[in-house]
Amino acid sequence: MIQIDPKSQLVRADTDIEIGELDNKLSREGFTLNYWTPPDNQHHLAEVLRHRLPNVYYRGFGGIEELCVQIRLVNESGKVFMNKLAPRSATGPSLKNLAIGTADLVGVPIEAVLKIFPKPQNEAYALLLFPNEDKRASFWKSFLRLRLTLAMAEILPAPEGASGAGEEDSGGFSIAIADWGNRELVEAKFDLLAALAMDKKGMFVLVEDPKRQEGLLQRLKEQAVLAWKSKGEEKFAYPKVLQALKGAI
Questions:
Q1: In a domain, 103, yes or no
Q2: How buried is 41 (Cβ within 10 angstroms: 0-12 exposed, 13-18 middle, 19+ buried)?
Q3: Judging by beta carbons within 10 Å of its beta carbon (0-12, 13-18, 19+), is residue 76 exposed, middle or buried?
Q4: What is the pLDDT of residue 237?
Q5: What is the mean pLDDT of each run of 10 residues along the chain (249 residues)?
Q6: What was the pLDDT predicted at 83?
Q7: Which of 72, 135, 190, 218 could tie 82 with a disulfide, CB 3.0–4.6 Å?
Q8: CA 28 to each of CA 25, 221, 225, 243: distance values in angstroms, whole numbers, following the listed order
């Protein structure tokens, strides 16, 4: 069961639906979840909630704890309870945040209300190329301070960062970015980052070929997963996801 509220941009769904299937149904109604969890986005919503599976688009849209606004749980005794679907008016622990990522400790998730987004008007991809590691690191620090809500942004390690992007990507000191949504807003963010890259002696290269965009998006997803693993954030991930990733990356 899914119920879409286009005015509030929310969807109510049973947790036995796969994330990919839910997103496909939303797409037919002109919306998207902006949520993709490795390795194939085919985990059930219950798994995502129980184990706080990562969202590779977290920079722009947040993790499941931000995207889920209400959760319905059932405990061992069969009692059903949920948090209120309203802005919190008091301090203290949040039932929703306590439940997400704790397996079945608080209760088994049976229904959730998630934020949804209109299908994007525009998708944009780019590579930022730098002459050395210091220039790239300087740009990255400035980028993080800006707190731009890009869908994806990852440092690409050499030699992978120098392959598959075209002949112009020859330095190996690269950052890949992707964003989608309102056309004017996406273009404004890319213009800002192009100027910042130039200030750091780098080069901003738009990736416009659809095949190269697809390849770059895949590299961004892989690098996002590796970044989480390097920080030890894999402890939140469902074990089967990590086993699949070991064979895929």
A1: yes
A2: buried
A3: exposed
A4: 46
A5: 93 96 95 92 93 92 93 89 67 71 86 95 94 95 94 81 43 89 94 96 95 94 82 49 42
A6: 81
A7: 72
A8: 5, 24, 29, 32
Q: In the structure encoding, which two tokens stand for residue 169, read together?
A: 């990507």
What one-character DSSP code corresponds to residue 162? G
Domain boundary residue, one of 86, 101, 118: 118
Q: In this structure, are 111 and 10 located in the same domain?
A: yes
The predicted structure's pLDDT at residue 239: 44
Residues 76, 171 within the same domain: no
Instruction: Report the pLDDT value the prediction gives residue 84, as an integer from 0 to 100.
Output: 78
Q: Same domain for 127 and 101?
A: no
Q: How many Å apart are CA 128 and CA 144, to the nearest integer?
A: 15
- DSSP, collapsed to helix, strand or coil, labels residue 168 as coil
Range of the domain at 37: 2-118
- Give the pLDDT of residue 192: 97
Residue 152: burial class (beta carbons within 10 Å; 0-12, 13-18, 19+):
buried
Task: Judge if 188 and 108 occupy the same domain.
Answer: no
* Cα–Cα distance for residue pair 203/137, rounded to 1 Å: 14
